[in-house]
Design a protein that fits this description.
Chain A: Pfam families: Ribosomal_S7. The structure holds 2 protein chains of 2 kinds. By secondary structure, chain A is α+β, with helices and mostly antiparallel strands. In chain A, about 40% of the residues lie in helices and about 20% in strands. Chain A has 2 domains: about 50 residues; about 140 residues, Ribosomal protein S7/S5 (Ribosomal Protein S7). In chain A, strand 2 and strand 3 form a beta hairpin. Chain B is an alpha/beta fold. In chain B, helix 10 links the parallel strand 9 and strand 10. In chain B, helix 5 packs parallel to helix 6, helix 7 runs antiparallel to helix 8 and helix 8 packs antiparallel against helix 9. Chain B is globular. Classes of the chains: A alpha+beta, B alpha/beta. The interface between A and B is medium-sized, with 20 and 20 residues.
């Protein structure tokens, strides 16, 4: 939506009594099509008498996600940044020179150049306690075990997390398709992103709903992750159930292709 | 740039030496703190777990207790402030009034651990240790406040007093059996302790009858102060968070008015203990912002945390600063965590990972421990 009317028509003196009822933001068509653009902000405020709504407008600078095509992705990897441009092979040198001429997008705050960054653990501030809980349990077992058993005990919380997640990922799931007016549940392969989503969703729902509400979430999550790592636990059971249902509806699989 | 290359060189050398002789760098086999000198600086010494149960029934930080459970050993780093403090303690003149030592420093730098090191040293030497683990717990979140029967304007804290007496008995049982009371104490209509009875009886009286616990604490402190000057035993008063005694509390009386610290009987008696009007021991205290009430987060200097009242009450004292980890201490801690398999991430072993740990933690011991827990 674009407003090309003068702003003064919309500005009225408003009395600031009560909470802002709603804020609507409309992008203005300006020459600048980069990440920073101007927006017209309409604030609807309620007066105490509930008789009328005052409208307050202002122009604000807003940074938003849609960049013009000229913008390039930022380089976050420390190793590539430390390399001297003269050392690179021809093609990469051309890329480097190209990047010096073009504008670069702002790096999102979830991306770090940290050595310890992990794409799956995207919010480490939340996962610190879970990873610590897993590590403490495993290390306690490790230090109490005999020499032969020590080799089998995995203490790295990241490997446990990744392994547990991959153990919980379903390969096929049932989707509803209508053929001849009737709806059939047919088994379909699950995409990578949906596998990840389902595994994490099941783990979190299991912890939130079926455990004691007085225990902390990180304790519950660490228990579930350890069980999933060993191939036991309710989440693995859920995955096996989904697979069984898909297996039982195998006859309808050809409906996927009409 | 040259400084950075030099430092990198030193770090690489340290890492190489550590790989050849891993235990030599960051561990020492000297488990008696009395023998810890500059030579043992930055090395970890372990306390046997049975001793930990006796000497530290309360007083160790929560995360350190979890670490003991995980690693199955209690290892403390010998640092310069502790060695300095031991030098002063060894050269105390027990005929002179007790000297007060105040450990101060930024949040997470290891003041409580240094205090625990001092407690271990004095316990090994046979001193009687009066360890108040966290004085802030006396001035906030206390349930069951009673009006004192001894002085009506004061307030009793039966739960805190009885819990403290239990732990005090565990750590000092053998000495408490030998010290006898010098006057008769009447707790209430039915209970009293005669003259000449061992202090253990009085302590047990306080633990079983919670209503008299605060009065028992007051009486125990009075007896210890009186008898310490005679020289039969040496007394260490170790208070963590002594700035709680002067300032404000978050407690309210039944009529919703705020309680000031002097109105709490425990705080009143402990303030008397921290005065330098007795001889035959030492007073080692810590000032702490972490559990304090109504103090700004970044304050760590003695005058900021103690306030005018507390500073003039504690004056004169010997201030000992507990700094963040130096390069050598950081390396020692890093090697210890690697040895105990606390740092599990593959990248944590690399020089890049180590540099990142140093940067993120800012050489602050508590921050380093929390970061290493995540990795």
């Amino acid at each position: 939506m674009c407003f090309n009317c003068p702003v003064e028509d919309y500005c009225q003196a408003a009395m600031f009594y009560s909470a802002i009822y709603s804020i609507l933001r409309f992008p203005l068509e300006t020459a600048n099509k980069g990440p920073v653009s101007t927006q017209l902000e309409l604030c609807f405020m309620r007066t105490p008498s509930l008789s009328s709504h005052f409208i307050l407008c202002r122009l604000i600078q807003v940074r938003w996600k849609r960049y013009a095509p000229a913008f390039l992705e930022p380089e976050v990897n420390k190793e590539t940044l430390h390399k001297e441009p003269t050392e690179l092979p021809e093609e990469e040198k051309k890329q480097w020179d190209f990047k010096t001429t073009r504008p670069i997008k702002a790096a999102p705050s979830s991306v770090t150049s940290s050595v310890f960054s992990d794409p799956l653990v995207s919010f480490p501030a939340f996962c610190t306690q879970t990873l610590e809980a897993i590590k403490r349990k495993q290390l306690k077992k490790y230090h109490e075990a005999s020499e032969e058993e020590k080799v089998n005990i995995e203490c790295n919380p990241y490997t446990i997390f990744h392994q547990a997640l991959s153990n919980c990922k379903p390969i096929v799931e049932l989707t509803s398709i209508s053929r001849g007016g009737r709806f059939y549940q047919i088994p379909t392969p699950v995409k990578d992103s949906r596998q990840r989503f389902l595994a994490m969703k099941w783990l979190i729902t299991e912890c939130t709903e079926n455990k004691n509400h007085r225990t902390f979430m990180h304790v519950k999550l660490s228990q579930e992750l350890l069980l999933a790592f060993h191939g036991e636990g309710p989440v693995i059971k859920m995955k096996h159930n989904v697979h069984k249902m898909a297996e039982s509806n195998r006859a309808y699989a050809h409906f996927r292709w009409g | 740039i040259t400084a950075r290359i030099c430092l990198n060189g030193i770090v690489n050398q340290d890492v190489q030496i550590a790989e050849e002789k891993p235990r030599a760098i960051f561990r020492t086999s000297e488990s008696n703190p009395a023998n810890h000198t500059e030579q043992h600086d930055c090395q970890h010494y372990s306390i046997p777990l049975e001793e930990v149960k006796v000497i530290f029934p309360h007083g160790l930080p929560r995360r350190f207790k979890e670490q003991i459970e995980t690693f199955k050993e209690a290892c403390l780093m010998v640092r310069k402030p502790a060695v300095e403090l031991f030098g002063y303690l060894k050269s105390t003149n027990f005929a002179q009034p007790a000297i007060r030592y105040v450990l101060y420093g930024e949040s997470g730098t290891g003041k409580t651990m240094t205090l625990c090191h001092a407690v271990h040293y004095c316990a090994k030497q046979g001193w009687l240790v009066l360890h108040i683990p966290d004085a802030h717990l006396l001035v906030k979140n206390c349930k069951q406040l009673l009006q004192s029967s001894y002085k009506t304007e004061r307030i009793d804290q039966p739960l805190q007093a009885s819990a403290w007496l239990k732990n005090f008995r565990t750590s000092n049982e053998h000495l408490l059996r030998e010290i006898k009371t010098q006057q008769k104490y009447t707790w209430n209509k039915w209970d009293s302790t005669e003259e000449g009875r061992p202090l253990v009886e009085m302590v047990e009286q306080g633990i079983t009858r919670m209503k008299t616990a605060t009065d028992v604490v007051g009486a125990v402190l009075k007896e210890l102060k009186r008898q310490c000057s005679l020289g039969s035993f040496k007394l260490l008063v170790a208070v963590d968070g002594v700035n709680a005694f002067w300032g404000k509390t978050t407690l309210r009386k039944r009529d919703k008015t705020l309680v000031s610290p002097e109105e709490l009987a425990l705080v009143h008696n402990l303030r008397k203990m921290v005065m330098n009007d007795w001889s035959g021991g030492a007073i080692v205290t810590t000032i702490c912002q972490t559990g304090s009430v109504f103090k700004p987060r970044l304050a760590y200097l003695p005058h900021e945390l103690l306030g005018d009242e507390g500073f003039s009450a504690l004056e004169p004292f010997v201030p000992i600063q507990v700094p963040k980890y130096s390069e050598k201490e950081f390396e020692s801690c890093y090697q210890y965590y690697l040895d105990r398999k606390w740092l599990q991430h593959e990248k944590a072993r690399t020089p890049d990972g180590r540099a990142e740990l140093l940067f993120l933690s800012g050489a602050n011991p508590a921050q380093l421990e929390r970061l290493a827990a995540m990795l």
